[in-house]
Design goal:
With 252 residues, the chain is of the alpha/beta class. The chain contains eight helices and six strands, in the order E-H-H-E-H-E-H-H-E-H-E-H-H-E. The chain has a four-stranded parallel beta sheet, with helices on both faces. Strands 2-6 form a two-stranded antiparallel sheet. The longest helix has 22 residues.
Length: 252
């Protein structure tokens, strides 16, 4: 079971039919292939979600499924940190609440920190500072409770431009494959994440930057001013259990 925001939903890894795939789908396929049998998979992540509705809404729905999940992955807080008054302490408290709920339910929880997009974002230094603080605090929680943390935030490979979508905030297909490899390796699989073949160096020209702000930054600001989210009225893409069959080789 995967819960979270656009990172876990798979935004940036679009398929020809317009649906999104993403690292969590790839991990489910990789686990099925490694085991040689189908695994049950669900994904309640929705783009734009803040951490509180992930922990209070998605996690509650996940634990209420029949049968209950044996493993839940949790990532969140990225959208919170883009807000003007991000409260890292509150995000840590919400994560601790999720840890307690999963422990009480006897469900294994795996924590993830998202990749670091800050090199190419407006106010990137602020984003990195908040991400560093949140990742460090979540790492402390994971160590204290004996949980696995897949720390994508400090994966230097994934910070390279060719792992990111045009909006510079969401991973692309390369980035999601990279995260899937990191997760499968952390879970004890025999799959090691391989670096992606880099394209040409990114050109940061004036016209390129102007188009970026027009096509991505300004629409995001306008949604914030209206109090809207890209995930409004959307539900998780796999709200019920589905069987993922093994393939001849891992999909990462």
């Amino acid at each position: 079971m995967a819960i979270g925001d656009s990172f876990t939903e798979g935004v940036g890894d679009e398929l020809p039919d317009g649906s999104v795939r993403g690292w969590a789908d790839l991990v489910a396929a990789g686990l099925a292939t490694a085991r040689g049998e189908a695994v049950r998979y669900a994904n309640l992540a929705v783009r734009g979600r803040l951490l509180e509705p992930i922990v209070t809404g998605q996690l509650g729905a996940a634990l209420a499924l029949d049968p209950a999940p044996t493993l839940v992955t949790l990532n969140g807080g990225g959208n919170d940190m883009l807000r003007p008054r991000a409260d890292v302490g509150r995000l840590v408290a919400m994560t601790a609440h999720a840890i307690r709920r999963c422990a009480d339910a006897g469900v294994r929880l795996v924590l993830l920190s998202g990749g670091d997009p800050s090199d190419r974002l407006p106010f990137g230094r602020t984003v990195r500072r908040r991400g560093e603080a949140l990742t460090a605090r979540v790492a402390e929680l994971a160590a204290a409770h004996g949980l696995l943390l897949v720390d994508c935030f400090h994966d230097t490979e994934i910070r390279r431009p060719h792992y990111w979508s045009a909006d510079r905030l969401h991973l692309n297909a390369n980035g999601h494959r990279r995260v899937a490899g990191l997760v499968l390796a952390a879970l004890g699989g025999d799959i090691s994440p391989e670096p992606s073949v880099s394209g040409l160096p990114e050109a940061r020209r004036l016209l390129t930057e102007a188009r970026y702000y027009r096509e991505h930054v300004l629409p995001w600001v306008q949604r914030r001013l209206r109090g809207h989210s890209s995930g409004d009225d959307q539900a998780g893409k796999h709200a019920e259990w589905s069987d993922v069959e093994p393939a001849d080789r891992p999909h990462v």
